[in-house]
Amino acid sequence: METSICVFSGNSNRQLAESICTILGIEPGNAEVKKFSDGETSVDIRQSIRGKDIYIVQSTCSPTNEHLMELLVMLDAVKRASAHTITAVIPYFGYARQDRKASPRTPITAKLIADLVTVAGADRVLTMDLHAGQIQGFFDIPVDNLYSKPVVLNYIRDRFMDHLCVVSPDAGGVERARAYAKPLKADLAIIDKKRERANESDVMHIIGDVKDKVCLLVDDMVDTAGTLSNAAVALRDAGAMKVLACCTHPVLSGPAIPRITASPLEELVVTDTIPLKGEAAACKKIMVLSVAPLLAEAIKRIYHDDSVSELFL
């Protein structure tokens, strides 16, 4: 394995890539990813990778366009260096929220990014908690969409099992909330909201009984935390004993951290698909769980041509 597999990383999430390498028992690939003086991305693969199986770990998180370009240039670099197979490991797949034409004359950026990654040289994509599962169909190459649910469930089971109610922050997230509620044997509730503008939401009412319950809000990502903070207020007003939340991708842009700090949320459980920086890293309400073991196991199974489907559960 040490002689035929290489894991490289862009600048978006080097710590996660290093953790994956540690679990696999290999050294991180030697690549320099930087910028020219005019801002163009420069990639230099500083070792022979001819005939090797390459895995490039890169989340397309903020600054999104910069990290996306790094991924594309790295894919092109290893393709031209005669790699045997190339897997783009994208823990957080950006631009996924624009997965359909919600109004006239708007793009479908999820499809655009899928095309770019494929043309750049990826033979396979390994990602986590896509915003919409059907995005897998935008690719003409195999896509393994893992879920952080096993990692989060283990944490929740150890701490918040009594009087637990899993809450979906909107109607679209009911399936995800039910997937958490079933193994936890918890009640299920739904928050009906009306969104007036992008990144803004107004909570309308709660479907389900949350009085005297420990409410766990479940979502795939938290961006500006408007939905999350409004939902937490609504749940407490409805008599919830305590409110916590979990998500896979802590985007946490704009006013997210002040909103979380001021909200009734007792804890926000996230994963390290996106590294926390600045005030997000200092926020005491945020608990970070690592998905490195899950990604490392998936890489190992892909390399050995073993089934990955068990990890989708």
Series of secondary-structure elements, N-terminal to C-terminal: EHEEEHEHEEHEHEEEHEHEHEH
Strand content: 25-35%
Q: What can be said about the biggest beta sheet?
A: 7 strands, mixed
What's the helix count? Answer: 9
Rounded Rg: 20 Å
Residue-averaged pLDDT? 93
* Basic shape: globular
- Sheet with the most strands: spatial strand order: 10-9-8-11-12-13-14
State the total count of DSSP E strands: 14
User: Which structural class should the secondary elements be placed in?
Assistant: alpha/beta
Uncertain segments: none
> How far is the N terminus from the C terminus?
27 Å
Name the helicity range. 25-40%
Question: Please, could you describe this protein's structure?
Answer:
This protein is 31% helix and 26% strand. It has helices at residues 14-24, 64-80, 109-120, 149-159, 174-184, 226-237, 256-262, 278-282, 292-303; strands at residues 5-9, 31-35, 41-45, 53-57, 85-90, 124-128, 143-146, 164-168, 187-194, 202-207, 214-222, 242-250, 267-271, 286-289. A seven-stranded mixed sheet has the order 10-9-8-11-12-13-14, sandwiched between helices. α7 (256-262) links the parallel β12 and β13. α1 crosses α9. The longest helix is centred in the first third of the chain and has 17 residues, at 64-80.
